[in-house]
């Protein structure tokens, strides 16, 4: 037996009004289903990573550490074809932490391997076979400085056991879980010790942008918060002179 729809006064609604309300409920349900389909279609078109993909891992790690200032920004697929000044403008919306973005805030994470290391893994941060190194795009990594810094952490080990080079791409992918252009020092598959260029500690504002786990996603965060949360090393690891990238006009 069907239940009659009741009016506010407690009486049964006229048949036409009851049918109208029933149709209205059907329309609302259809609208909800349609909106859900639109949302899913937008995610597919935008290439939004699913929860089980690397970006979700980075976001989860940023929350767990925590890095309160962590902000994620999706960029166009042509991002790496742009000069640094255009990349800066793409990330420079003042609504994100109210910072004025300059090219000095754009950073990258490089995977280094100590090919002469006495160890095969990364369990000892003082003497790891692999290091994730963060530098600005406007600087150049100097491997000799990395050698001196890590050697200083291990004075008891002969210098013949230290020789740094870029880690092979397939090894980097395996250890970090991130592809080229997407490497992030947060949420890596394997806990790898991080060395941050000390120049980043002198930035004003204290903010940097890094790879975010997907080539089209960038992670921005406060430098001091990052150091505190990750307990990374901070060292002088770049050439003293600026690279050619620094000569771009920061307009």
TrEMBL record:
Alphabetized Pfam families for the sequence: tRNA_edit (PF04073)
YbaK/aminoacyl-tRNA synthetase-associated domain: residues covered:
109-218
Q: One MF term in GO for this entry?
A: ligase activity
- Out of the domains of life, which is the source? Eukaryota
Keywords carried by this UniProt record: Ligase
tRNA-binding among keywords: no
Query: Does Ligase appear among the keywords?
Result: yes
InterPro entries tied to this protein? YbaK/aa-tRNA-synt-asso_dom_sf (IPR036754), YbaK/aa-tRNA-synth-assoc-dom (IPR007214)
What is the protein named? YbaK/proline-tRNA ligase associated domain containing protein
Instruction: Give the species this sequence originates from.
Output: Acanthamoeba castellanii (strain ATCC 30010 / Neff)
Species classification: Eukaryota, Amoebozoa, Discosea, Longamoebia, Centramoebida
